[in-house]
Description:
- The strands form six sheets. The chain has an eight-stranded mixed sheet, with helices on both faces. Strands 6, 7, 8, 9, 14 and 15 form a six-stranded mixed sheet that branches.
- β12 (about 245) and β13 form a beta hairpin.
- It folds into three domains: about 1-130, Nucleotidyltransferase, domain 5 (2-Layer Sandwich); about 135-340, 2-Layer Sandwich (Nucleotidyltransferase, domain 5), CATH 3.30.420; about 375-579, DHBP synthase.
- By secondary structure, it is α+β, with helices and mostly antiparallel strands.
- It is built from 21 helices and 25 strands.
- The radius of gyration is 23 Å and the shape is globular.
Amino acid sequence: MIVLGINAYHGDSSAAIVRHGKVIAAVEEERFRRIKHWAGLPTEAIKFCLAEAGLKFGDLEHVAINLNPRVNHLKRLMFILKRWPDPRLICERLRKLKKTQGLHEALSAAFPGERMQAQVHHIEHHLAHIASSYLCSPFQDAVNLSVDGFGDFASAAWGMGTGGRMTVDGRVYFPHSLGMFYSALTQYLGFPHFGDEYKVMGLAPYGQPTYLPQMRKIVRVQGDGSFKLGLEYFRHHRENVPYSWDNGSPEVGTLFAPALDDLLGPARKEGEPLEQKHKDIARSIQAMYEEAFFALVNKLHSRYGGENLTLSGGCAMNSVANGKVQRQTPFKHVYIQSAAGDAGGAIGSALAAAQQLGETRREHMSHAYYGPEYSDTDYQILLQNDGARIKVAGCEIIHYKDVAQLCQDTAAAISDGKVIGWFQGRLEWGPRALGNRSILGDPRRANMKDILNEKIKRRESFRPFAPSILREEVSNWFEQEADVPFMMQVFQVREDKRAVIPATTHADGSGRLQTVHAETNPRYHALISAFRDITGVPIILNTSFNENEPVVCRPQEALDCFLRTKMDVLVLGDWMVRR
Length: 579
């Protein structure tokens, strides 16, 4: 059985294709369109997935989407009768519901000349999230929690997975949402763009939670572990906050109400200096999120028990909170899929639909390499065609016959303080660069963050860079022992190791690690091993291969990024371009 799953009409549009419970291909639309968080119908991602499966659009029998306009109608009606929101808000919600229901027509129009035979399956948003984590996890039994902004009139859902079957036993409904809280306060701090929440996480360690009493007025933890918002501080439930989800960069209007200025003082405008007050507010936002999150997680453990937890939804990208689960709850094992946010709903909807159709097989997603890949010939043709540009830039081209030598020379360059563009294998699924589309540096150099920001990234100085570490070395360098293949958890670096790897140790002594396995990424593992042999450190600084754009997808984009920045070395498969 083959099912195409999509996340559409929202940010991070994506597509995935599943055959017999196994993911064959998965990719975000932004990687092809070159617009961050691209929203709309993911036609280019669909074409890639079909090609990987050896199918034409007209061959499909099943398409699934992570939205179901037929659910939670009673809750919607009760909200309207109780709150009487702006009629424009109701009209906008109805417009989106109509668009979702018209998916068959939209897909048919996007693939003219190919008769659409596929049945469309609408999977409830949070069920798709839960499926994307639980059905991809190594667990037979697990408590499953999805926490998000909103989807199908709910912001959170939870239930139990047993023997490959899932339940959804509880939800938090609109207008209450931890995702809305974090997004609104992100805007308040002067980070207005869709997806900027990670900047608040990066800023938080520089402050103190002095505004936590105020935050408890904004988020109110309930006795049953759920939460409610202080709605006087928000606009989304009564006004038609403008959203743009069509064919481009998603845009979101102001989510917070003037009452938030009264509570915390005037909001920071984008580009204004970051003062200590803003850092303290960031820390307080993160502390409040964790307080509410762990209240819910602990209540779920009291209800269900067990050792295993899966997390999904946009809030499952909060790697700081994720890294504390084993310390602040009884759960011992956590699984978070590499695209935990809405993009991951493409995989989740496909897997949930397949299960509803009778599929019983499932496979542990132990890696995230499901996107496009390129051959040695592709690299050779590119370097030949752009040879003049490369020569003008003062670069030489080297072709390696021996992968071990390539890794040794690259590791030596990293140990010499060089910045490396590393492009190999299949593109990563999800927002993190995991060693196939990465920029690499030496974690031992305290000035490496400044070098990267000056040469390439040109981003806020407070944002950390991640350590990629050999899986077998985790307990020697971090205070917790666990597998974190998707860079979804932040752990404390051992105190005696922090001065050794200052470039990947954040202000609070933490690191958002990626564990690297020889089985799932042998070349990247070999590179880090070669670096360890030279330096004694089994860690490489890893950040995404991009410059204020989506992560590079094609070799041409990697070469262009290398030539327009001050990277020192570019590795394309077995080819090295060196300044």
